[in-house]
Design goal:
The protein is globular. The chain is mostly helical. It has one domain.
């Protein structure tokens, strides 16, 4: 799965519409700027691994994937962006499960 950089910017903006209060790390610890692709991948991976929840109440990645898909499908973002975000979630979920 590859997208153009402009596609990642649009996907990142759609992601931000869904999760308004999520902080997205824009710089590395060394001060280097992240690209939209890196920011989006990291945010989705953290979501699937439920890293922003206390360890005792974390949910499995497959459950987090279901919840994310439902939230995306019920959102007001454009249909093609919904499909792209769901596709990206599925792709990253497969990566997470294989590690």
């Amino acid at each position: 799965m590859t997208y153009r950089e402009t596609d990642y910017l649009q996907l990142l903006n759609a992601y931000r519409e869904l999760w308004v209060n999520r902080s997205l790390k824009l710089k590395t610890d060394e001060g280097k700027n992240y690209h939209e692709k890196e920011i989006l991948y990291e945010a989705i991976k953290k979501d699937l691994l439920d890293e922003m929840t206390h360890p005792r109440v974390r949910q499995p990645a497959d459950r987090k994937l279901q919840l994310a898909k439902r939230r995306i499908e019920e959102s007001n973002i454009e249909d093609h962006m919904k499909r792209e975000l769901i596709s990206l979630y599925d792709f990253i979920y497969d990566e997470v499960k294989s590690t």
